[in-house]
DNA sequence: TAAAAATACTCCATAGGTATTTTAT
DNA sequence: ATAAAATACCTATGGAGTATTTTTA
């Protein structure tokens, strides 16, 4: 059964226009091309479809019967393909993005705003939850993609770096280190620390950095949210190490932020299921985020906005 | 929209078999061919249909949606084409044949019997009517084809000779000419004739022959049916000129049949609309009639069956 | 490391075009 | 005589094959 869509479309055009030359003109083909297509179709079906003289082309009974069924089916086929094609082009629908709390507060508002500008028809649903749940949501396909702290390399995910976010020292203005332009990691030894707990993706990195620099100190408090951490520091419970994106500090709190040396940072990445393509719509949002890289990086610079 | 059926079938096969190699095997294609077909389809739709690793091929959401619509539509298309194809091959249905009275009585029974043998599923409807109506029925497409005395060459019809049917002289056994082995046309001069009327296709020919041979005689009687003619001859109303196919003579009638010299004959032909194809079924009957030529010719030889 | 898809290339079949012939009105 | 389809022939594109490379579990 070697019938092609091309042949069927030619067949229809001949019926519609009542002639091979006219049908050809309508299709952008020459008369011999039409002639051949019809002949091939007739041979494939072992059935004469047209009775043709040089003056007129008349469909046979069989041709008319075929035409009846064909128009409907071919129209449906066109619709199905058109629907598929539009799916790739259309700009409305829903995209689900998982994002860690700090990022939901700092980066996502920027992305959402931009998204609204570019794709007003697109609804972006934010899944604001902790690192582990974000990763699971991505892996299970519950969300289109995630915006998280770079996970362990062993995690089966595909990730795309978005920006780097430095760690800063946060302390009270009356703290011993507050006067310095910058603080060295070793200077943290002996200082009571107030940190985010392990539900945060950064905590793992901070633990690693402290160990790496041989810092010997105790975690006096650990909390789920950065703002709580800052309050604790303001209340004199110790100093904190915080990524830039977790700022700004609570208004009116008497805290200082200083660079840590040597500089250390976490990577913020977009993640998605490995070897799974994003929906066309999700792709747009993903790309939009990447295009915003420079702009987003600004949000991670407390020194730039003078805190 | 340059999508081919081929590509869609490949797409379906990949979904069904869950792999390019397997799909290829099922379709009788190689893996690279499948790979290419899928890629082409994806490019045509500007849409990713499969997420593929070397270990597994998974349809994307868009792919699955397309699949849903496609299976139904493609099945319908196959059905439509299959129905068309079968139409050319199937052996049941109705064929309408117009036939002149003499032929309905002589040739058609033979054709009908043979038809029943070869195509028991086929119903052959006989339209037994006079020449003019037969021709009109064919021209108007009321019947598939006709079996008639060869009409005037100017008649817009396509005809195929089937057999030739000699004219014979029919007279009473006690008639002056009855003793001869054959009769010459000129010997008919002065004889009262009993002939078929002009509703018969042969009458025109007989008139022509009489004039051609300069026969000077009167038509004593003209009738619509051959059997009536023979009765008239038996009743002594005159002699008759009759084609072989109009025989046999009525049983028990004391008539003789002798050849006319020089031999004259009418041609029995199959006729159909010019430049119109026969339905596949009608074609079979038409061809069957042509295959029976020799056999049918026997029915036109009263000498052979010794009347 | 093995199994499967992607890629590179080569070849042939098919589709389309131009030029010409045939045919019906 | 004209208009349209059929035919012949040529070219270019595309589809399929083999061989090879890449990739992931």
TrEMBL record, chains A, B:
One Pfam family of this chain: LysR_substrate
Residues in HTH lysR-type domain copies: 1-60
Signal sequence region: none
PROSITE patterns according to UniProt: HTH_LYSR
Taxonomic superkingdom: Bacteria
UniProt KW keywords: DNA-binding, Transcription, Transcription regulation
Transmembrane helix recorded as keyword: no
Family, similarity comment: Belongs to the LysR transcriptional regulatory family.
Name of the featured protein: LysR family transcriptional regulator
Source species of the chain: Chromobacterium aquaticum
